[in-house]
Every structure is written in C-alpha cells, then in structure tokens.
Amino acid sequence: MTTTTYDYKDKGKDYGDKDYGHDKDKDKDHDHRPKYFTVSGMKFGDTDNDGKKDGNEKGLPNWTIQAYVDRNRDGKLDKDEINKGWAASDTTDDKGDYSLKLKDDKQYIVVEKLQTGYEETKPTKSVLAADAANLGFGPYGYVVNTKYDPYHKDFDHKDFGNHLKGATVSGTKFNDKDRDGHQDGNEKGLPNWTIKAYKDTDGDHILDKSEYKAGAAATAKTDANGDYKLNLSPPAGGADYILVEVLKDDWKQGPTPPTKVLDKQIDDLGKYGYAFNLKPGDNLTDKDFGNEKKKDDHGHDDDHGHGGYGSKDKYSLTASATNTLSTTPTIASA
C-alpha cells in the first residue's frame, strides 16, 4: 500500500486526483447555502399614514432602493460605508416593486433614497448613523444577515411606505391704524376673520371665477390674537395657490398684502392677497393682512366695527344738525 504524505501547510492542495484535507462529497452534502440571495419588496404611497399598504394605495415607481455592506456589523449605515459604494441598487418599476441581488455571508443595510416632500412610514427601524443623517437617505430601513440565517434563500416583503407631507401657510390679521403696512405695538390683531386659499390652476396669479367656484383648498379663522394657520396638501411636484381674506363691512384693505390677486370683484373677497407655489413640507409664514376702518362722512372711525356709527359719531351728527337750524323764533300771525 502506497502512502502519500504532505506537510500541514499544504493542506488543501490537489495531489493528482486527490484533494487532501477536504471531503468533496461531504462538503457537497452540507453546503446548501446559496452563493447569492435576493432582497425584494414594494415601495408604496401610504396616503392614510398608517404604515400599512391598503387596497387603494398604489406602488410608487422610480424610487431608488439600495443595499450597503454593514462592514462593522453594528446595524447602522455610516458615511464610510456609504462612501465605499452600494452592493446592489434598483429602481422601483411601474408597480413599485424592486429586487436586489446580494452575495451571501454578509450583513447588509437596505435603505431608500428619500424624495422631496415625502416621509417614511414603513419600516420603523432606524438604520442611519449620525454622520449619514443628511445624505439623502430615509432614516429607516432593514438589516439583513445571511450569516445567522444561512439557509434562508431570499428576503422578501421588505416594503417601504411613504407619506406625502402636508404644507402650512400662516400669518396675522391686524388693525393697520397708521396704514404703513406693518403691525406696530399699538395695533392689535383682529379675531374672527376668515382667510382662504384657492388653487391657482392656470398659474396666472389671479383668482378667477372658475377657480373660486371650485372651492377653497383650505379655510381658517383668525384667533384672539389675529393669527391664522392653513393646512394644505400640495401634490409631490407642488401647486400654485392664491391667498385672500373675506372682507367685513366698514373695513378696507391696507398696503399689506401688496399684490392684487383679483381682476374683478368676487363676492366679499379682498382684491389684494398673496400668490405662491407650495410644495409638500413647505411652511410659509408672515402672510399678513393689514386692514383699517373706513371713515364716516366726518372722518371718524367706526368704533365698534359692526356698521353704523359709534357714540362719538352720533354726537357729531347731532351737533351738525343743530348748527343748520335757525335760532330766530317764528311768531305766528293772529
């Protein structure tokens, strides 16, 4: 019987038709782990913001999903790992589906490239390190590891849900007594005034009859301090809006706002307001409205703002009427 000897350091070398140090048949029986595996899922618009895909919620196309090797296996994607490049990347199809093919026996972090105006509702696991927080990725994702699950061929249902952010517009309604367009310390806010926003569908910065008849996109009443806030839901690409106030009797608009947004009078809306484009996540402030009381025939303000005249105005009217009467007595003839 011939015996072949070899040094330990040569273990595994092929001597002729023998592979010393390995039992190929045994390895074949036990090596069921795939060389590659896939991570797949759907990207959907979570319109009701509940973190679940409902029947009426559609997949979102053209979103980028990427997987990075979690080199230090800490479950967080850091800047250094991002700089080394992604291991796999895919763009969601028309149905919002994606699929990533990854090498086996590594730990990966799967994230999405966040688009403007959206916020994540699914998943809910935070996977970004502090130094990667502002690099354009959604803060939540998935950690997948085949080392601890060697016979799991694929990882599916790794879905991403996103909700389109709302937008706000706010400001103050005030009594602009000196008509300078600014709220001074002695000029109080005006409560219980109505502020409305309409969609400017033709983008001409003028509110026309058809846009008015379509109804207000949002309405708010000023509070005790004259402040208001409108909540709007612009589409992903943004939309044009026109902001106006509902005028009250015995009040007129001052120099704030300065932009004429009505060519023709529409009901009781003020002709001056604001025209702007609004995108999801926007928060516009300082959209103020300054008004002054109309003067009566004698140059006095209406003290109460309810129409008619205040007490001082009544006195003025009486005095004026008395002064026009003759003070010479008339003697009737016998």
Question: Summary?
Answer:
The protein has helices at 24-30, 79-83, 209-213, 311-323; strands at residues 14-15, 18-19, 36-45, 64-69, 88-91, 97-103, 107-112, 118-122, 142-145, 154-155, 160-164, 167-175, 194-199, 218-221, 227-232, 239-245, 251-253, 259-260, 272-278, 283-284, 289-293. With 334 residues, the chain is mainly β.
Topology:
Blueprint: E1 14-15, E2 18-19, H1 24-30, E3 36-45, E4 64-69, H2 79-83, E5 88-91, E6 97-103, E7 107-112, E8 118-122, E9 142-145, E10 154-155, E11 160-164, E12 167-175, E13 194-199, H3 209-213, E14 218-221, E15 227-232, E16 239-245, E17 251-253, E18 259-260, E19 272-278, E20 283-284, E21 289-293, H4 311-323
Parallel strand pairs: 3-10, 3-11, 12-20, 12-21
Antiparallel strand pairs: 1-2, 3-6, 4-5, 4-7, 7-9, 8-11, 12-15, 13-14, 13-16, 16-19, 17-21, 18-19
How would you describe this structure to a colleague?
The radius of gyration is 36 Å and the shape is elongated. 9% of the residues lie in helices and 31% in strands. Strand 1 and strand 2 form a beta hairpin. The protein contains 4 helices and 21 strands. The chain is mostly beta strands and 334 residues long. The strands form 5 sheets. Strands 3, 6, 8, 10 and 11 form a 5-stranded mixed sheet that branches. Strands 12, 15, 17, 20 and 21 form a 5-stranded mixed sheet that branches. It has 2 domains: 130 residues, Immunoglobulins (Immunoglobulin-like), CATH 2.60.40; 131 residues, Immunoglobulins (Immunoglobulin-like, Sandwich), CATH 2.60.40.10.
